[in-house]
Write a structure and sequence with these properties.
Layout: H1 3-6, H2 10-32, H3 37-40, H4 52-77, H5 79-99, H6 103-116, H7 119-130, H8 133-161, H9 167-174, H10 176-185, H11 201-206, H12 213-228, H13 234-241, H14 247-272, H15 276-294, H16 300-328, H17 334-363, H18 367-382, H19 386-391
Helix pairs in contact: 2-7, 2-8, 2-10, 4-5, 4-6, 4-17, 5-6, 5-7, 5-9, 5-10, 7-8, 7-17, 8-14, 8-16, 12-16, 12-17, 12-18, 13-14, 14-16, 15-16, 15-18, 17-18
Length: 394
């Protein structure tokens, strides 16, 4: 693929950066506050924070249910309009969560966050209507960078603010971020309707996609499941392997794979944009080896090494899935596609959370990483086979 194919007009680059930046600031509360549910819930009457695990996945569950519908509405009524709706929906739900005075009201706020949010799918739908091909896959790679940066920075900022304002009330304070994002996005143009003429079914027939849409959904689910399953109990695993580890060091170990993505995503995109299937197989292999290594790592050096290996797999997987998604977007309505893709992504996260809780309770803190490693290994073995290409070619 030539460098020319990756170029986009300056106006389009500005739109990509604006959308990615707005997604970053709007994600702060959504990604930074859930780790503090064990501190928030006692203020609302749940003294033992028994509902923390359930409430952690409530926005994800309802976000998954609503994403396909919002995507189709975006294709029908306008991607910019639905992107603004998502940002304003987050702001409303954050305000309600911040001012909730009971567990019931707080739960309703989290349900609304899932139903009314969906900023990632809405942002990708907007970009999918603006860009195509390698330019779109690069934009999707930058969007994932926004998500990783928010995942690393948000918990640190929330923790730093906790000395002045409780995490519960920070929901209301951080509602200003999606409101600000909505004001910035209001200045962006609606993607040109004229481009829709290029997205006709015949275009798909002329150049078959690298993988079918069904295969893309399966790969998205498997990738999210195998990576997210290690998140909830990583700190417990670190404490089990290295007793007395400081919370700060545990946080650094948690963040390492996401830092890897921030540092390496664009070079990886340049290297694998023409061979995403091979890069994805390599990514799943790195994830499988990295997670298996978590189960046997007994020193800080070993933990750092396996976290970096997981980071390599995370980077390869996210980048190559972005390339495959951009390829599947040719000839299709982007809102519906990215809304459905978000459904399978969130479904994978929910399944991972359930499997992590069940596995940890039955077999200990190492069980989630071993389950995730097994899932990644199976996917890496199946992915390159001709059987998958021919059976799911459409």
């Amino acid at each position: 693929m030539s460098a020319e194919a990756l170029r986009m007009p300056a106006s389009a680059r500005g739109q990509v950066h604006a959308v990615a930046g707005c997604y970053f600031v709007a994600s702060f509360a959504a990604l930074g506050l859930p780790p503090y549910l064990t501190e928030i819930l006692p203020e609302l009457g749940d003294r033992g924070a028994r509902w923390a695990g359930v409430l952690y996945v409530v926005p994800t569950v309802f976000g998954a249910l609503g994403a396909p519908l919002w995507g189709r509405l975006a294709d029908r009524y306008g991607r910019k309009r639905l992107l603004l709706r998502a940002q304003l929906g987050l702001a409303v739900s954050f305000l309600l969560a911040g001012w909730a005075d009971s567990l019931t009201t707080f739960t309703v706020a989290l349900v609304l966050q899932g139903i009314l949010g969906g900023t990632f799918a809405a942002s990708n739908g907007y970009l999918g209507a603006t860009l195509q091909g390698p330019a779109l896959s690069k934009a999707l790679t930058l969007m994932q960078g926004s998500a990783r940066a928010a995942l690393v920075a948000a918990p640190i900022v929330v923790g730093s603010l906790s000395g002045w304002l409780s995490p519960h009330r920070q929901y209301a304070l951080l509602a200003v971020l999606p409101l600000t994002a909505a004001l910035l996005l209001a200045a962006l143009p609606e993607p040109e309707r004229a481009r829709e003429a290029e997205r006709i079914p015949e275009a798909v027939d002329a150049a078959p996609p690298i993988v079918s849409l069904k295969t893309l959904y399966v790969l998205e689910f498997a990738f999210v499941f195998s990576t997210v399953i290690s998140f909830p109990y990583l700190i417990a695993l670190v404490d089990d392997r290295l007793p007395g580890t400081s919370p700060a060091l545990s946080g650094v170990l948690f963040a390492l794979p996401h830092v890897c993505y921030l540092l390496a995503a664009l070079p990886v995109h340049a290297a694998f944009r023409d061979r995403p299937r091979g890069g994805l197989a390599l990514g799943f292999t790195c994830i499988a080896l990295g997670l298996a290594g978590h189960g046997i790592a007994g020193s800080l050096t070993a933990l750092i090494a396996v976290r970096l290996l997981l980071g390599a797999g995370l980077t390869l997987g996210l980048v190559c899935l972005s390339v495959l998604a951009a390829d599947c977007a040719k000839g299709r309505a982007p809102g519906g596609l990215f809304g459905s893709l978000e459904f399978f992504s969130k479904a994978g996260a929910v399944a991972a959370g359930v499997a992590a809780a069940a596995g940890s309770a039955r077999f200990g803190p190492a069980a989630p990483v071993l389950i995730g490693g097994a899932a990644a290994a199976v996917t890496a073995i199946v992915l390159p086979t001709p059987h998958l290409r021919t059976r799911w070619s459409r």
